[in-house]
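INFO  loader      accepted 1 record
INFO  loader      residues=279
INFO  predictor   begin
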Amino acid sequence: MSVIVFTIIILIGAYFAGLLGSLTGLGGGVVIIPLLTLLLGVDIHYAIGASLVSVIATSSGSAAAYVKEGITNIRLGMFLEIATTIGALVGALVAIYIPIQYIAILFGVILIFSALMSLRKKAENIISEPTYLAAKLKLYGSYPDGNGEQIAYGVTRVSGGFFMMLFAGVISGLLGIGSGALKVIAMDTIMRIPFKVSTTTSNFMIGVTAAASAVVYLQRGYIDPGISMPVVIGVLLGALTGSKILVHTKSSRWLRWVFAIVVTFLAGQMIYNGITGKI
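INFO  predictor   done
INFO  writer      dumping tokens
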């Protein structure tokens, strides 16, 4: 396979990965890594390195817009970033020494979990009063509801959310993905933050988490410009297209089902190749 054909395949695949990731909110890394490893035979460490660079690029673009709209809770995001950054560094350092078969199997398991989480109904459980620790750290906030009014919300179980974010950071560093599903558990289920706020705050955080992991992969020589550049361009274009489609789509339920089916298939392939040693 020539370099031009290889680059075009990555570019097209990354575009659709960014498109699917944008429409479902789980990021393009969950499709990019199986594409590179299963279809093109790229070493999983190089695939993770390219995915991390694309996560930084997409997060930086979309996070700025959400911050401007006043939805993102910056104070909460910076507090939880302490946990995810530590976790990401640990995960990235450990990943270098773990056999690629085990990484592939773990990646497949996390993919299936992400697919199931994408189909979960998002119920708003807004609490009005923050707990003692959340009040001391001033992690509570408010967000616009679309009618010009501000909806106030509190935050609960801060320590539980912090430790879940630590685990999410480790998984991000190990696998090169945003760990959106784990962040949803931390902020939605444990800390009881409104879904809109948790989604935008998570988007704000994943770029910093990925940057911490990417430093380790860069030092180890696992970020190849020939792979990373078309991945970043493709994912960015796909994410931009996805955001425009999402505005005009009344229901994203069918999109989530398509994403879940695709991701579950890729997960099965990753687990099978990991077990049989074909990766």
